[in-house]
Amino acid sequence: MNAIVSLLGPDWIVTMLLLSARIAALLLMTPLLYAASMPLLVRVLVTLGFSCVIALPFAGSPATVPQEPGPLLQALLREVTVGATLGLGVLMAFAGFGLAGRLVDVQVGFGIAQVFDPLTRSRMPVLSSIFALFAAVFFFLVNGHHALLRGIAYSVERFPVGQSPSLAGAAEAIAREAAALFTLGFALAAPIVLGLLLVDFALGVIARNLPQLNMLVLGVPVKIVAGLLALWAWAGAFGAPAGRLYAGIYRTWTAWLAAGAR
């Protein structure tokens, strides 16, 4: 017991707390693992638990963390910056699902209908809420939570506590990956959106040839039914682009950490 206490000394505690700042900033920007309904005590315990596990290899190693208040505050801010930037990759992937849901909502006509989303604790359109819930479920189905923990450990391996990558060198890599993620988000909704555009074209032809029909009344239920049928037909092929969207998280992290090391 005394040997364990001697290993887990003040330097290790400082390392663990700094690492907690990195992980807390990451989880704060992850809508899945840091949902607003999660109690504060659970958030703190999860963050400290992850930090203790990842910081255990540093026990007994030479101190690399600052001891003075000024440098310690700078190290804390660097850890928050690193964690927030890692969380940005996760947030962009979920935003890709949100973009897909919003595009479908607008085309179907559900954009004006708002429901309560339990994940974000806010009101959002119907299909956008469904896409957000699907994104959360699919994240666990592809073991995204395991890869998330491995990504945190990889960031600590590349940039130990107290060090941070160059944000200036990583800006271009992050912007490039963000464009790719939002392109994949559009690809999720593209078949449905294109199908509904064809429905709009068909309704326009009908309105041109049968002006006595009220297209405003007829078009809304037709587009809703067509949109739901297109969503049902596309659901079977949804997994491949959704998997690429989550793979973009780790591409973003790898590109950022590689560019930041230059």
TrEMBL record:
Pfam families: Bac_export_1. GO terms for cellular component: plasma membrane. GO terms for biological process: protein targeting. The chain crosses the membrane at residues 12-33, 40-60, 80-104, 124-142, 179-203, 215-235. It is a multi-pass membrane protein. Keywords: Cell membrane, Cell projection, Cilium, Flagellum, Membrane, Transmembrane, Transmembrane helix. The keyword Membrane applies. It is found in: Cell membrane. Its main location: membrane. The keyword Repeat does not apply. Belongs to the FliR/MopE/SpaR family. PANTHER family: FLAGELLAR BIOSYNTHETIC PROTEIN FLIR, SURFACE PRESENTATION OF ANTIGENS PROTEIN SPAR. This is Flagellar biosynthetic protein FliR.
